[in-house]
Amino acid sequence: MTIGPNIQAFFDEPTHTVTYLVSDPATGQAAVIDPVLDYDHPSGEVDTRSLATVLAAAEAGGLTVVWALETHVHADHLSGAPYIKLRTGAAIGIGEHVRDVQRIFRPIFNAEDVKADGSDFDKLFADGERFGIGALEVEVLHTPGHTPADVSYRIGDAVFVGDTLFMPDYGTARADFPGGDARQLYRSIRKLLDLPPETRLFLCHDYKAPGRDAYCWETTVQDQRKTSVHVHDGVTEDAFVKMRTERDATLSAPALLIPSIQVNIRAGKFPPAEANGVSYLMIPVKPKVGD
Ligand SMILES: [Fe+2]
Question: Of 46, 85, 127, 280, which one is least surrounded by beta carbons within 10 A?
């Protein structure tokens, strides 16, 4: 008999992100998925209080954190993976196509220290690769579209889907970041929705759909196929691409896009310190041509 993972969710309201602590009941080994570093953009202040909450829960449960897993290079929060690694010795894993994301953003941020070979991370996962969290087997599913490198982690009857699907009443992730592709996103979503109907899907974000008062981050394949406002059964690829493209054209940049990308392509590390010992995040200025 397969025993499923224990799952604890930690919702970060400022960034609407869910961090998961996933553990194997048999061995007590655990993974932290999509850890959030607290970051105040106006002041540049960084804090680890949210990460401390996750690690305290791990300690209370007698768990050994062996992985810090990213579903993708996030554009809305700074990764706390290095702090998880520092405190526990966990290895930082992400999909192997992170190299493409690094290649795209390295010139934009003049990030010469990023080698764009994925070596900032400890482990790069290929599509279909399997690894363990104790006795739990994790299957990596490459689910690109939101970014080229998105992966979902399937553990027993649970899948951590990153930014592909949101709650059925909210829809799907945007696909307009550099390297994003609405058609790919549709195909990745169909791949997830081909899993057994009772499969539990754990989301990376929730924003409360209009009319809903509580944050939610767990749904099922069945629920998505029946009621997703964007991808219920019967929505064709072309119809989805049209909807997604039109909707993305109305969305503004996430508040933490620029700091997040610079840190997250470095596996959560800040850019190398300048001669004065201080690390800086940069803003590429884009003058309007004309006038
Ligand atoms: Fe994202």
Answer: 280
